[in-house]
Amino acid sequence: MAPPLITFDKVRKTYGEGEARVNALAGVDLVIPAGEFVAIMGPSGSGKSTSMNIIGCLDTPSAGTYAFMGVDAGRLDRDRRAILRNLYIGFVFQGYNLLPRTTAAENVELPLIYRGVAAAERRELAMRALAEVGLTGREHHTPAELSGGQQQRVAIARAIVSRPTLLVADEPTGNLDTARSHEIMELLTRLNRELGLTIVMVTHEADIADYAQRTVHFLDGNVESMALNKEKAG
Hints:
The chain has helices at 48-55, 78-88, 104-115, 119-132, 148-160, 178-195, 206-209, 230-233, and strands at 6-15, 22-32, 37-41, 63-68, 71-72, 89-93, 166-170, 198-202, 214-219, 222-228. With 234 residues, the chain is of the alpha/beta class.
């Protein structure tokens, strides 16, 4: 049997020294199987962002074990973590992070450039990803020519163009109005279902978290509670 995609085993994360020492994570246990859509919630300082950074291999535990696909990712050096991110993890952020003077297609191609994919194949894969997020016909528009919701769709296309195993979404609807927020969440739900994409999403909005299959609440560096979302559990 394959190991879970993500495993936290007594993960601790400490910042600072002496009186300035902060225990961001205080011994967290968490398991996320491949294909699950998980929402992470909690107040400021609860540990949700620290856990997200560790899951995305942007940071490492101070103690305990973070295993990704059965590999102790927390013990990998910076270069190997970068390779792991490039091969297996896509990221979507609140602020889109698109290059302003390049087209939607060119923005989506960026991860493929880092992989050394040839230009013709890059363009074909970018067009496919943009079609999957509903942006056919917008491939040659720059971010300034797109709405906020469309810009986030470009960011999602960029995150999935290389077919990652995991999508890390940090407040993906934070800059959007209610209608566009729900459109983006319906898109993420569809990608989770149709592509088998594992999604771990940080949000502070309960109605956005309800799109996930499970919600994990952090408080004071610990998992306070976790529960299946009723409408997804059946």
